[in-house]
Amino acid sequence: MKPDLQIVGAGLTGLTAAIEAAERGWRVTVAEAHSSPGGRARTLAEPFRANLGTHAIYVDGSWWEWLERRDLTPPIVEAPRLPGLVRAGGRLGPWPAELSQAIAALPAEAPAEESLRAWLLRHVDAKTAEAIIAVVFIFTFDHDPGRLSAAFAHQRLRRALAGGVRYVVGGWSTLVDLLAERAVGLGARIRTQTRVLALPEGPTILATSLASARQLTGDSSLTWPSARTVSVDMGLRAEDSPDWFRVLDLDDRIYAARYSLADPTLAPAGHELLQISAACAPDERKADAERRVHRLLDQCWPGWPAAVQWQRSALRTHCTGAVDLPGTTWHDRPAISRGGTLTVATDQSAAPGLLAEVGIAAAQLAVRQLGEPSRPTQAYERV
Ligand SMILES: Cc1cc2nc3c(=O)[nH]c(=O)nc-3n(C[C@H](O)[C@H](O)[C@H](O)COP(=O)(O)OP(=O)(O)OC[C@H]3O[C@@H](n4cnc5c(N)ncnc54)[C@H](O)[C@@H]3O)c2cc1C
């Protein structure tokens, strides 16, 4: 018998859609190309449990409330009370209090039509503007956040500094497992190692990346700007290690955090997991971005090469979520409803939120847009 609703992709978006849809009585099948669910929210197996994509979860947003209502919240931890360092003008130092003051003094609203850089220059001096732009890199991953819409960047800046950031204990796979178990418990079937090569018939949610949805549909309008960044992950011996938790390089737009200091389960005893993102301009090569990362480490972790036990790096394009350029907002991104019973829910879709939350909001909108199944199978809590 044909399933009522087909979901392609078992990342955070596809799993959220599966739960919402099954709660509404849909009989759901999720097809996932990979051997396990999670997509960009997967965590590597031991010894160094690096998150592939997602790191921070925001407990001050509507997704966290959604998880709470379903008793699906994962164990979380805050950042440890260790110093944060900033590199500015080639020198390492503590986070400058005047930078926090300058951010707090910005107007409450910023215009969507203007670039972040142009807007900041109307309120702060050029040096402070570039420092704030470098802070915005942490959660947009954009090589030049000054080019983004001021409203887009400013809303995310406020949100990121509001104190809602936590880390999932055991890595994001902990949350992926909770979501997948709930979806299966509600009757959804998750078929891993199942790559969908042609658009399914009937009610469908494409919960893939926007690029995969474009390939599957042949619809070239499924496109939106995203960032280009280089990720460097390292497992290191913890002897003679420095005392900071995170470093933000304002000069070079690099962000490094020792996640195992927040959650020791991510690395074996006596070792650490360090994960780094470096902005990568469209014309910069991966190797050059890595060289900039190494220069920063030389300064903030003397002797780091001898401590490295494991490492990997990757150039990441179109996988850190949507960025909105001046004159656009999330409403202008590719629509979720694609005509008939086809919907596309991705983290670059027309939905609100920060990073992964966009895909999750898109999943909820997709299920709502598909309406009720014609043949309800079971009644579950409706929210
Ligand atoms: C370096 C980095 C850091 C990040 N940090 C954060 C952060 O701190 N906080 C945050 O909230 N977000 C963060 N993000 C963004 C976050 O990872 C993504 O927004 C989120 O994981 C996207 O989930 P998704 O389910 O929409 O897509 P995906 O996770 O990409 O899932 C899509 C799934 O579809 C499957 N698929 C694709 N095509 C097919 C097909 N034809 N057939 C079957 N299956 C298919 C894929 O295998 C995949 O499993 C980060 C991303 C990166 C890359």
Give the helices and strands, then pairings.
Layout: E1 5-8, H1 12-23, E2 28-31, E3 56-58, H2 62-69, E4 76-77, E5 84-88, E6 91-94, H3 97-104, H4 116-121, H5 126-140, H6 150-160, E7 165-168, H7 173-185, E8 189-191, E9 204-206, H8 210-217, E10 226-237, E11 246-249, E12 254-257, H9 259-262, E13 271-279, H10 286-300, H11 304-307, E14 308-322, E15 342-344, H12 356-370
Parallel strand pairs: 1-2, 1-9, 2-8, 5-11, 9-15
Antiparallel strand pairs: 3-7, 4-7, 5-6, 10-13, 10-14, 11-12, 12-13
The structure holds flavin-adenine dinucleotide (FAD).
The site of flavin-adenine dinucleotide has 36 residues, from helix 1, helix 8, strand 14 and helix 12.
Describe what you observe in this structure.
The protein is of the alpha/beta class. It folds into two domains: 5-62 and 172-224 and 329-370, FAD/NAD(P)-binding domain (3-Layer(bba) Sandwich), CATH 3.50.50; 76-168 and 226-322, Polyamine Oxidase, Chain A, domain 2. It has helices at residues 12-23, 62-69, 97-104, 116-121, 126-140, 150-160, 173-185, 210-217, 259-262, 286-300, 304-307, 356-370; strands at residues 5-8, 28-31, 56-58, 76-77, 84-88, 91-94, 165-168, 189-191, 204-206, 226-237, 246-249, 254-257, 271-279, 308-322, 342-344. The model is unreliable at 376-383 (pLDDT under 50). The structure holds flavin-adenine dinucleotide.
What ranges have pLDDT less than 50 throughout 5 or more consecutive residues? 376-383
The SS-based structural class is alpha/beta
The molecules bound to the chains, other than polymers, are: flavin-adenine dinucleotide
Order of strands, widest sheet = 6-5-11-12-13-10-14
What is the typical, i.e. mean, pLDDT? 94
Rg of Cα set:
21 Å
CATH class category name of the largest domain? Alpha Beta
Shape: globular
| CATH architecture heading of the largest domain | Alpha-Beta Complex
